[in-house]
Specification:
It is a single chain. By secondary structure, this protein is of the alpha/beta class. Strand 4, helix 5 and strand 5 form a beta-alpha-beta unit. It has nine helices and nine strands. The radius of gyration is 18 Å and the shape is globular. Helix 4 packs across helix 5 and helix 5 packs parallel to helix 7.
């Protein structure tokens, strides 16, 4: 945190701190994963709700998050996968069964884990980013290549390493989005899509109908490609991306809680 701290830009350290909520003995452990440019605080309300039902919840901090955009700019999607894997190992040591779930990029990471870990009791994905609405995301690969080429040639020119971000939760999310980070997000989505058919665990996909960031058609595509037949798709009539916070979020929490309860009964 101190290494990448930027005055008046980095959030308080508490925003990005990973945390564990202890549940009742024998209950399911949940690895709950925050989104891109966000931090563990983003999923705190859902974590509290799930812990209130007796579940164990661990929220890892994805590398490059909860510090500064400069930190995120030098991370790869494999760094994020490693952060999730560490969380899985922690919960596997504490609980008899583990469910992975996340929001946005965290949803993609949960699906990526489920494609490789066959003994997951379940996986839930809230607004998984297979298709993004923002045109800047589609331009990122070309801009990133241009930046790298300019750096390699030691040339002065119109390098664009960050773009402005106007998040729904500015007290949590970064206000600058690294072009290199968008490129890594694109690589993650490719990896997730390739692994969906291998998912055998029960799966839940949740999406906001009028999401300004993630195209609902993308989450439908994710759902269709998930290998298991034991899967459910829930669409909420919200006009925002961050549906785990704010008005109506309790409805989303309940759907996820019911799904986790279902997986627990199925594997007990």
């Amino acid at each position: 945190y101190k290494k990448f701290f930027i005055e008046k830009e980095s959030k308080p350290e508490t925003v990005g701190r990973p945390f564990l909520l202890r549940g009742k003995p024998g209950k399911t452990g949940i690895v709950l994963i925050h989104g891109y440019m966000a931090a563990p605080l983003e999923v705190k309300e859902l974590a509290d709700y799930l812990a209130g039902t007796g579940m164990w919840v661990y929220v890892p901090r994805l590398k490059g998050h909860g510090t500064s955009p400069d930190d995120l700019a030098v991370r790869s999607y494999r760094d994020w996968i490693h952060s999730v894997e560490q969380g899985y190992v922690i919960m596997r040591c504490l609980c008899p069964r583990v469910v992975a779930g996340g929001f946005s990029t965290g949803a993609g990471l949960a699906l990526e884990l489920a494609a490789r870990i066959s003994d997951l009791a379940g996986v839930f994905a809230v607004s998984p980013p297979m298709k993004l609405q923002d045109a800047s995301s589609r331009l990122a690969p070309a801009v990133d290549v241009w930046n790298r080429w300019m750096t390699k040639m030691h040339m002065e020119g119109p390098k664009k390493e960050f773009i402005e971000n106007n998040p729904e939760n500015p007290h949590i999310n970064y206000l600058r989005n690294p072009i290199a980070g968008i490129r890594e997000l694109d690589r993650l989505m490719d990896a997730v899509e390739q692994g969906l058919a291998a998912i055998e665990s029960p799966a839940l996909v949740v999406q906001s109908q009028k999401d300004p960031v993630v195209d609902p058609r993308g989450s439908e595509k994710v759902f269709e490609k998930i290998g298991t037949d034991d899967k459910k798709y829930v669409l909420f009539n919200f006009e925002r991306h961050g549906i785990l916070l704010g008005r109506g979020a309790d409805r989303v929490h309940r759907v996820i809680g019911e799904f986790v309860g279902y997986t627990e009964k199925k594997t007990s």
